[in-house]
Amino acid sequence: MNRLLAYLENPGKATVTPYVWVVALLVVPIANSMFIQQYFVRSIELTANAKAALVQALYEKTLRVRMAGAPEGHEEVERNRFGRINNLMASDVYLLPQWNWLIVLATQSPAIGMCFSF
User: Fold this and answer.
1) Residues 27-48: what's their mean pLDDT?
2) Which member of 3, 30, 58, 71 lies 3.0 to 4.6 Å from 89 by CB, making a disulfide possible if both were Cys?
């Protein structure tokens, strides 16, 4: 935008034609939108795969623990342990998709900071 205004002030001194800046003002937001949308698609796919892998690993662990079994008369302790494992699993699976926003924040913060510094 600065170079476009500089061209309007003094057309003879411009090194680049203003059409380049007009095209850049059009292309850059479109490309940015495409990259962000692609990031969200890949992020959702990665989150779904990670969630499925985590659930599978935790269920396998729960089944292995259950197969080992508890000594006779300790069924209540065994049930309590399965409840804790399932509770931890549910909370981990719930929090997994929320880490995506940390990645967005980490990647977009430097760009926002650079915009404010110039």
Assistant:
1) 87
2) 58
Structure tokens at 39: 């990031």
In whole angstroms, give the CA distance from residue 74 to residue 57.
Answer: 25
Measure the CA–CA gap between 118 and 107, rounded to whole angstroms. Answer: 18
Q: Are 88 and 54 in contact (CB under 8 A)?
A: no
Domain that holds residue 64: 2-117
Number of separate domains in the chain: 1
Give me 21's structure tokens.
């800046």
Work out the angle at residue 87's Cα, subtended by the Cα atoms of residues 59 and 63, and round it to the nearest 5 degrees: 25
Angle of helix 100-117 relative to helix 18-68, nearest 10 degrees, comes to 160
The answer to whether residue 22 scores a pLDDT higher than 80 is: yes
pLDDT at 70 over 70: no
The reply to whether the predicted model has a pTM over 0.90 is no
